[in-house]
Amino acid sequence: MENKVYNPAIRPAERLSLVNEYYFSAKGKEVARLNAEGKDIISLAIGSPDMPPSPKNEDIELICCSTFEQVFEEMSADRTVIGMAAIENTIAGSLLHNYELLRDSGATIIGEHKLHISHSIMCLPEDNWEDITEVNSHPVALMQCRDFLNRHPAMKVVECEDTAGSAEAISRLGLRGHAAICSKYAAPLYGMKVLEEGIETNKHNYTRFLVFCNPQRANLLRDIRQTNKASLVFSLPHEEGSLSQVLSILSFYKLNLTKIQSLPIIGKEWQYMFYIDLTFEDYTRYTQGIDAILPLTQELKILGEYIDGKQSL
C-alpha cells in the first residue's frame, strides 16, 4: 500500500477509520495538547465510539505508513510528528522488531492503548453472500478468522498487504465478487457493505499500541509526575544471578513488573537486551528504584514514562 495522507484538516465531528491496523503517524499544530493515553490520535485512527472527537483534532494530519520503519522515518524528518505502532498482541505475541526500532530511534514513549481487534467481512453494496468468490486481507487477520473461513471453503483466500487496504482496493477497482476482512469502520470510509461482524475466532484479541514522539517534545505531551508506567531496556553482564538481582531490587521499591522480553545482542553470543515494562504508584520510589539498578545494568535506557492504558471494549 502506498503512503497516503488522509484529511489534512479533519473536522471535529468526523471519524477516520484505521487504514492500517498496525502503524501510522500523525502531526499537527495542536498535537501538543494530546493527553498521555494518546486518545486523541487513537480516536482519529480507529473511530472508537468511546473516544469522542475533540476540537483540537482540527489541526492533526494523519499519515498512514506502509511499514513500521516509515513511521520512525516520518518522526526523524519532522520533530512534530507523533508515531504509533503495535508492540504486542494477545494472540500473535510481541512484535520483536519494533522493540529494536524504538531503541535505535531515540523516540520517547508517551502513551499506550490496548485495542480490541474485531474483524468484519464486507463487499461492494451491490454484492451479497452468494456473489462472493474471493476474500482478501492481511495474513494475520486471515489467521485470526480461520474458523470462519473454514466454514466457507468455496471462497478463495488471497493475502494482501493490510486489512482496510484490501477494502479500499475492492472499492476503488469495483471488484465484484470480492470481499475484505477488516475493521467495520472501514465500510463507511470506502462505501462498502458489511456482511457479518465479529468473525474472528478468538473474541479476546487485543493489540497493544505505543504512542511515541521526539524526546524534546515529550514533556509537552504528558505530565511526567502523573505517569504510572515505564518501559526500560538494558543489558546485563553474563554472570549468574544478574537478572534476579535486578528484579529483586525492583520488587523492593514496589515496582510491578508487567512484561519482560529478551532479544539477543547481535555479535555477542548468549547475551541479551532486556525490555521490561513496570507499573508504580509513587514516582519518587520509581526513580529511586531505577537509580538502584543502574550500577548492575549496562546500557540502561528509559524508553518512556506514561499512563497505563486501559483496554478498549
UniProtKB/TrEMBL annotation:
InterPro entries in alphabetical order: ACT-like_dom_sf, ACT_dom, Preph_deHydtase
Query: Which named protein is this?
Result: Prephenate dehydratase
Q: In which pathway does it act?
A: Amino-acid biosynthesis
Q: Prephenate dehydratase domain: from which residue to which, for each copy? A: 30-214
Positions of the ACT domain: 231-307
Q: Name one GO biological process term.
A: L-phenylalanine biosynthetic process
Q: Which residues form a coiled coil?
A: none
The answer, when asked if Lyase is one of the entry's keywords, is yes
User: Matching SUPFAM superfamilies, A to Z?
Assistant: ACT-like, Periplasmic binding protein-like II
